[in-house]
């Protein structure tokens, strides 16, 4: 670790690695500091995709999309609580972000739907690799090519300002000792606080005992680091529960929205549907929590399995029940077999007619569930994402309690608040890390030039 860097980037998830690469390409010499022994944060676990509109990938599939629709659907999905300026910047730079990745050999050429979106705009790799791991592994390789130093087990414990209020350095802890690094600019890319019992207790006490899909380092450090030098946390009570998390094994597994996007349905303990499976995460979670067993079963057939590559992975992990017939599947789940058969018959009529009279589902219903074998995964909601975080502007500059810029301090990704409103749409967090990770580095470069 040197004594001085142009730019210190805290966190090695999507936001941190993207901003490091962008910074290097603008002529800066950044360093990435990661407190955990492993790299990639929560990003490496992401499975749905990266949302973007007006892309060539979409056009190649005949999907004519617009930034305006992307904006509007995200705004509605977020309870209209999204910061309009951030959302505007985000949606109108999403297509460019896909192009930027492509220029770096990162190809997201497959498309799927996520809850709350009417058009296929979740871009993901064509290979079996989940989007997060694919992105992180490629970015780490790219960082190595341009010799950007990345340190693990290195925790930032304090941000330092000079007497005029500008960033002048950071304090870090590594291998039990403390060190001060000089720098004029910092990007906070420390992720959210889904794994912090302390912060959940403070802002959403009723969620503190829920399981979480987050890695154990998602403890909101960036919120504390920023707040200590005047940054303003906003919308901290807006915590996302993901509706379909398998929790019967010691390690929990998020079962991505793509499974429903490709045609799976949810049934309750009576073998009946109870919701539009592709409503927003907020609504679907509420519906599951309202069931007597507070859990549900994802049901799909062989054809869905073949369309969603991740399902083979879940099966290998032992999360999936499989049977040659629906009757046998019902027996394994201890559900009423004729009720489950009725449900599938009704569902196939919905697919045929294109109208879901009971629940109003309008997406992910292009294929019947009719091809044996049949599968089920037991799922329930878990803490997944924290929409709240540090207040930033369109330039990814961190703002203080009076709305003034803290000179030299930038933030990107889940550590920031405001973009998603009260519900983050699946596929928007990866997009956020790329769009705002780039922006933070670009604006840091402008700042350092002045
Ligand atoms: P995002 O999706 O916004 O990029 P991630 O959760 O993927 O967020 O990554 C954030 C990373 O920041 C995690 O790997 C986390 O361990 C790391 N991190 C959090 N706090 C600190 C800290 N104080 N010092 C260094 N790294 C940190």
TrEMBL record:
Q: Cofactors per UniProt?
A: FAD
Q: Which residues form a coiled coil?
A: 323-350
Q: Is the keyword Cytoplasm assigned to this protein?
A: no
Q: Which keywords annotate this record?
A: Coiled coil, FAD, Flavoprotein, Oxidoreductase
Q: Which InterPro entries did the record assign? A: FAD-dep_OxRdtase_2_FAD-bd, FAD-oxidoreductase_2, FAD/NAD-bd_sf, Flavocytochrome_c, Succ_DH/fumarate_Rdtase_cat_sf
Keyword Coiled coil assigned to the entry: answer is yes
| One Pfam family of this chain | FAD_binding_2
The FAD-dependent oxidoreductase 2 FAD-binding domain, residue ranges = 6-430
- UniProt record similarity statement: Belongs to the FAD-dependent oxidoreductase 2 family. FRD/SDH subfamily.
Q: What is this protein called?
A: Flavocytochrome c
Q: Supply the source organism for this entry.
A: Ligilactobacillus faecis
What taxonomic classification does the UniProt entry list for its organism? Bacteria, Bacillati, Bacillota, Bacilli, Lactobacillales
């Amino acid at each position: 670790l040197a004594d001085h860097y142009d730019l210190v980037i805290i966190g090695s998830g999507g936001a941190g690695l993207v901003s490091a690469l962008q910074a290097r390409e603008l002529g800066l010499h950044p360093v990435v500091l990661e407190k955990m022994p492993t790299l990639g944060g929560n990003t490496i676990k992401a499975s749905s995709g990266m949302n973007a509109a007006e892309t060539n990938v979409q056009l190649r599939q005949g999907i004519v999309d617009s930034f305006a629709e992307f904006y509007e659907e995200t705004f509605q999905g977020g309870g209209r609580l999204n910061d309009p300026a951030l959302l505007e910047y985000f949606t109108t730079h999403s297509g460019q972000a896909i192009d930027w990745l492509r220029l770096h050999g990162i190809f997201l050429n497959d498309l799927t739907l996520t809850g709350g979106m009417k058009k296929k705009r979740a871009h993901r790799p064509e290979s079996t690799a989940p989007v997060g791991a694919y992105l992180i592994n490629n970015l780490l390789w790219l960082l190595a090519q341009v010799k950007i130093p990345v340190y693990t087990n290195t925790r930032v414990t304090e941000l330092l300002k000079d007497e005029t209020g500008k960033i002048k350095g950071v304090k870090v802890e590594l291998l039990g000792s403390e060190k001060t690094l000089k720098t004029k600019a910092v990007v906070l890319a420390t992720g959210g606080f889904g794994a912090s019992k302390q912060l959940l207790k403070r802002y959403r006490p009723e969620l503190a005992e829920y399981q979480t899909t987050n890695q154990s380092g998602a403890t909101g450090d960036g919120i504390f680091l920023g707040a200590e030098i005047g940054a303003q946390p906003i919308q901290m009570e807006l915590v996302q529960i993901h509706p379909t998390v398998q929790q019967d094994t010691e390690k929990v597994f998020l079962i991505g929205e793509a499974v429903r996007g490709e045609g799976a349905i949810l049934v309750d303990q009576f073998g009946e549907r109870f919701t539009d499976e592709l409503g927003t995460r907020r609504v679907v979670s509420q519906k599951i929590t309202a069931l007597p067993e507070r859990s549900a079963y994802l049901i799909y057939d062989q054809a869905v399995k073949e369309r969603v590559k991740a399902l083979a992975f879940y099966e290998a992990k032992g999360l999936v029940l499989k049977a040659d017939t629906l009757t046998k599947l019902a027996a394994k789940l201890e559900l009423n077999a004729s009720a489950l058969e009725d449900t599938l018959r009704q569902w196939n009529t919905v697919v045929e007619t294109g109208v879901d009279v009971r629940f109003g589902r309008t997406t992910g219903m292009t294929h019947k569930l009719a091809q044996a074998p049949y599968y089920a995964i037991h799922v329930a909601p878990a803490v997944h994402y924290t929409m709240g975080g540090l207040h930033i502007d369109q330039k990814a500059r961190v703002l203080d309690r009076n709305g003034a810029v803290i000179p030299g301090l930038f933030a990107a990704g889940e550590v920031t608040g405001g973009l998603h409103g009260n519900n983050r749409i699946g596929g928007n967090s990866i997009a956020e890390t790329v769009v705002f990770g780039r922006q933070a580095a670009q604006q840091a470069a402008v700042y350092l030039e002045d």
